[in-house]
Amino acid sequence: MIKTSDYDYFLPQELIAQTPLANRSESRLMVLNRKNETIQHKKFADIVDLLTENDVLVFNDTKVIPARLIGIKEDTQAVIEILLLKELGNNCWETLAKPQRRVKIGTIISFGNGELKAKCIAKEEMGICRFELIYEGILVEILDRLGTMPLPPYIHEKLEDPNRYQTVYAKHPGSAAAPTAGLHFTEEILNQLKAKGVELVFITLHVGLGTFRPVEEDDLTNHVMHEEYYEISKEAAEALNRAKAQKKRIIAVGTTSTRTLESAYKDGFHPTCATTQIFIYPGYKFKAIDAQITNFHLPKSTLIMLVSALAGREFILRAYNEAVEEKYRFFSFGDAMLIE
Fold it and tell me: Do β-strands 172-175 and 62-64 pair in parallel, antiparallel, or remain unpaired?
C-alpha cells in the first residue's frame, strides 16, 4: 500500500496565487538537482541561462476552451453549471454537471436564450454526464460568447484577461484546464532559447478530468485516472527520436507533456493519436524524459505524486516546505520548478 496521506504538506492559503503576474517570466524558479539534492532559487527568465544546445524542450500546445457554461434547466428553471471535458463526436460531450442530482437523462439545459442547448443522454461514474449539444453555427464561436474560462476552484479572483490562462503557443482547442507550466514562457524567452540552440518540440494533450481529479483512495494505487486524448505529429516524433539518438536531454514542460511522452514511448516515438490513463507515482521508471519544468501542485494530488516519482518523495516534500518558507506562489498562476 502506498498512502495518499504521504503526499500531503502544509500550505498557507495566502500562498495560493489568485492572479497571474503582470509579466509571465517574472515568476520565480526553484531549481532541483536530483543528483546531489540541492535547491537553488532563480527567476523564471534565468531558464535561458540554465539550458544549452544539448536540451530539447517539449511543450503541450493545447488551447483551453471557454468550457464553463451556466444555463437554465428547461422544465424547472433551476440553474445548472456544466464543464465541458471532452468531445466524443456527433456533438456529444463528456461533462461535469453541478448540481448533478438535478440532472436526469433527458434533461435539457438552455444557455444564452436558447442559442445553445444541452440534452443529457447518459450519467456515468465519477460524476460524469454525457450531453448532446444542440446549436446552429460554429460551436467554438458560440462558446466564446456564452462560456467562461474554467479556472480551478481555488482561484477566487476574476481573471481580467482570459489569454493569461493560455500559453503563448496555444494552438489546438480542446482543454478544460491550462497546461500551467507553460504559462511562464513569453515569445521573447522562446526566441532566446531558439537562438541558443535549444530545440522546441510541440505535442498536444487535451487536459481533462484525469489531470485535476483528486485522489480519494487511501491507497493511491487504487486511484483510476480518467482518459485524456493526445497527439504526437510525425515531425515531433522524428525530433524526439533524433534527440534520443544524440543523447540530448528531453525536458518536458509540464506534467501533461510528461504523461504524453511517457505514454507514447514504445521503442522510440511514433506519430500517434491516442488516449492515455497513465498514472505516474514513485516506483515508476521514466523512459522518455530526462528533466521537467513544472508548477507547484496541490497536496495529495496525482501531480505531486508524478514529480515525486521523478525527484523522490522526500526531496520533493523538502523542496515544497522550503517553497512555503520562501513564500513562493503556488498552483496555476504560481511559480515554477525545474527538476533536472
Answer: parallel
DSSP string, 147-202: -B----TT--S--S-GGGGS-TT--EEEESS--GGGGG--HHHHHHHHHTT-EEEE
Give the pLDDT confidence score for residue 214 in this predicted structure. 85
Fill in the DSSP letter of residue 128: E
pTM of the model: 0.95
Give a yes or no: residue 202 inside a domain: yes
In a shared domain, residues 125 and 254: no
| Cα angle, residue 40 at apex, residues 298 and 309 outer, rounded to 5° | 45
Distance CA 317, CA 313 (A): 6
Q: Are residues 176 and 129 in the same domain?
A: no
Nearest of 137, 143, 63, 61 to residue 95 by alpha carbon: 143
Determine the structural domain holding residue 130 and report its residue range.
68-146
Give per-residue pLDDT as tens, 37-78.
Answer: 999 999 999 999 999 999 999 999 999 999 999 999 999 999
Cis peptide before 152 (omega within 30 of 0): no
If asked whether residues 244 and 330 sit together in one domain, one would say: yes
Q: What is the pLDDT of residues 149-207, one digit of tens each?
A: 999 989 999 999 999 999 999 999 999 999 999 999 999 999 999 999 999 999 999 99
Same domain, 142 and 216: no
Q: Which residues of 22-59 are buried (b: 16+ CB within 10 A; e: fewer)?
A: eebbebbbbbbeeeeeeeeeeebbbbbeebeeebbbbb
